[in-house]
Write a structure and sequence with these properties.
The structure is a single chain. The chain is α+β, with helices and mostly antiparallel strands. Helices cover 36% and strands 20% of the residues. It has 17 helices and 18 strands. Strands 3, 4, 5, 6, 11, 12, 13, 14, 15 and 16 form a ten-stranded mixed beta sheet that branches. Strands 1, 2, 7, 8, 9, 10, 17 and 18 form an eight-stranded mixed beta sheet that branches. β12 and β13 (269-275) form a beta hairpin. α1 (18-30) packs across α9 (371-389), α10 crosses α11 (436-446) and α10 packs parallel to α12. The radius of gyration is 23 Å and the shape is globular. It binds flavin-adenine dinucleotide (FAD). Residues 14-20, 37-40, 44-47, 49-53, 55, 182-183, 218-222, 226, 243, 283, 329-332, 366-369 line the site of flavin-adenine dinucleotide.
């Protein structure tokens, strides 16, 4: 955190999204001294606002982006191995109708190609469904004129927790992770080379100079703003596009698989994705030029997604009142050569590593799915740059993040049996101290580390109580978040650590006072700090609900 933030490191990373955290993990594991500064919480930006899929991206096949698909499906396999508790196989149903652009035969060829690119190591083989089977597999789906469907497998994840665990692992290997710490300007030598940054603590306003032999800009949609701290940006590196999701009660839109839906108006592809007790629908894809921190759903976005849901699930009509929550994120996409003539959905998802004239290394573009590989490439670049300054040991040359499990995956059962881990959690906590659903929830989110949370509950059974009646999140998660996961504000806990912001009908507003009281006791907040943290969270909720006021 801020006090531990070193003033002299090999590598300073600006940005604590999936890329910044992945780079910190890789670099720290190779032996570099690393500091990461994040202006808000880890995964505050795009990395908690994605579609939460670890996927090859079937639709990129249509755009002939074979190398992106190959890279993505290879990374999907690796992430299934190093984060099995967080990356879970998910069925995707791709229905084909009389009116579909592609017939069953073409879709089938696409599926074989998709699985071929993964060297047939998909989580499961795809299946071709006849119309009657589609009805059984996905009873809520509109099936008039359906010719069949393909049921194939990709993965779902918790994007924020993937980021968190990467950062936690980086810290375990010596990196300093400082959240709520914004890089406000660069330090430069006489030759104009970036040699560090001035960092500001969001709470105290204190400034600190961090000197670094190399600085990486991993600020996602803020990339061009960060480059602009060094010099004027004549042509932006990025063309960000906005993507919105809406969250509905699963009982209202009861999907069994992630269902591919073509929007009835513009035929864009969307997904309705099962998410435990909820279903989310997304995403939109529209150009965005404002401040990345202000991105939010509009009424138009919400109505667009509701229209898709109501068309594809006709017996399960939903209205604006059914929307529990929205989230909006910005894809940090590389600006195409064709400029604005290229449509939003066609802008490439490839990534780009740039070394500026000032020595600033910038990583931009790419996907959550490919973060590990992109991070390794960035660290390779950094190591090569550092070698120009001094001799470095050979051991620094190789990334091994493909074989080292994330912290929660150490000791995870090879057969991926989540319920077995849940039973161990329950037995660590003492059967009467924790609901079975809570134990499973802990196993799914914290992996093997959930057993440690269970032991805490055994010592202090009151921490096994659910935070919200009818749900399964427990108070022990709050202490864990503060002590082990860098949570520093109510928002950090409600959004990135627990997802209560998205999942609770009231977005967790009913418990914020108690969350703030407990956090305040642990973090030594005074009344003003407590009020500010509550207020900050209320504003986050208000932003996510602003669309409703446009009605
Ligand atoms: P971010 O997560 O945005 O991180 C950048 C961080 O930098 C932010 O936390 C920000 O606070 C911080 N920052 C900015 N300026 C400063 C500063 N001056 N000082 C300190 N910190 C600073 N990919 C997939 O693989 N699967 C998907 O299903 C998927 N779905 C998506 C859906 C949507 C709607 C969107 C928008 C993207 C999706 N993506 C998906 C892409 C993926 O989410 C992004 O590529 C990835 O999260 C980008 O991570 P990042 O670390 O580069 O950026």
């Amino acid at each position: 955190m801020w006090n531990a933030l070193g003033t002299d490191v090999d590598l300073l990373i600006i940005g604590g999204g999936i890329n910044g955290a992945g780079i910190a993990r890789d670099a720290a594991r190779r032996g570099l001294s690393v500091a990461l500064v994040e202006m808000k919480d880890l995964a505050y930006g795009t990395s908690s606002r994605s579609s939460k899929l670890v996927h090859g991206g079937l639709r990129y096949l249509e755009q002939l982006e074979f190398s992106l698909v190959f890279e993505s499906v290879s990374e999907r396999r690796i992430l299934l191995d190093i984060a099995p508790h967080l990356v879970n196989p998910l069925g995707f149903l791709f229905p084909v109708f009389d009116s579909s652009r592609r017939g069953m035969r073409e879709v089938s060829v696409g599926m074989w190609l998709y699985e071929g690119l993964s060297l047939f190591r998909s989580p499961k083989r795809h299946r071709k469904l006849k119309p009657a089977e589609v009805k059984v597999e996905e009873p809520a789906l509109r099936t008039d004129n359906v010719r069949g469907a393909s049921l194939f497998y990709d993965c779902s994840t918790d994007d924020a927790r993937l980021t968190l665990e990467s950062a936690i692992d980086a810290a375990k290997h010596g990196a300093t992770i400082s959240t709520w710490s914004k890089a406000v300007s660069f330090l430069k030598d006489e030759g104009g080379r970036v040699i560090g940054a001035v960092v500001k603590d969001a709470f105290s306003g204190d400034l600190k100079e961090v000197n670094a032999r190399c600085v990486v800009n991993a600020t996602g949609p803020w990339t061009d703003r960060t480059i602009a701290m060094s010099h004027e940006v004549s042509s932006p590196l990025l063309r960000p596009t906005k993507g919105v999701h809406i969250v509905l009660d699963r009982a209202k839109v009861p999907v069994m698989n992630a269902v591919t839906c073509f929007h009835p108006v513009d035929r864009r592809v969307l997904f309705a994705i099962p998410w435990g007790d909820r279903t989310y629908l997304g995403t939109t894809d529209t150009d965005y030029e404002g401040d990345p921190g202000d991105v939010r759903a509009t009424l138009e976005d919400v109505d667009y997604l509701l229209a898709a849901s109501n068309y594809h699930f006709p017996d399960h009509q939903v209205s604006r009142d059914d929307v529990i929550c929205t989230w909006a994120g910005l894809r940090p996409l590389i600006a195409p050569d064709g400029g604005d003539d290229v449509s939003e959905s066609k802008v490439s998802r490839e990534h780009h590593i740039q070394i500026g004239q000032d020595g600033l290394v910038t990583i931009a573009g790419g996907k959550l799915t490919t973060y590990r590989r992109m991070s390794a490439e960035v660290v390779d670049t950094v190591v090569n740059m550092l070698r120009l300054q001094a001799a470095l040991p050979e051991t620094l040359s190789e990334s091994r993040t493909d074989i080292h499990p994330l912290p929660g995956a150490v000791g995870w059962p090879p057969d991926d049996d989540h319920s077995r881990v849940a039973r161990e959690v329950l037995s660590a906590a003492g059967d009467n101290n924790l609901l079975a659903e809570s134990a499973l929830h802990l196993a799914n989110n914290y992996g093997m580390l959930a057993i440690q949370i269970g032991r805490t509950i055994h010592r202090r059974p009151e921490l096994g109580k659910v935070m919200i009646p009818g749900r399964f999140e427990v108070w022990a998660q709050l202490e864990w978040a503060i002590e082990e996961e860098f949570a520093a504000t109510v928002t950090d806990f409600m959004i990135q650590r627990t997802q209560l912001f998205y999942r609770d009908f009231d977005q967790g507003l009913g418990i914020v006072d108690e969350v703030a009281r407990r956090m305040g006791e642990m973090l030594g907040w005074d009344e003003a700090a407590r009020t500010e943290s509550i207020e900050r969270y209320r504003q986050d909720v208000a932003l996510s609900r602003e669309w409703a006021a446009q009605a």
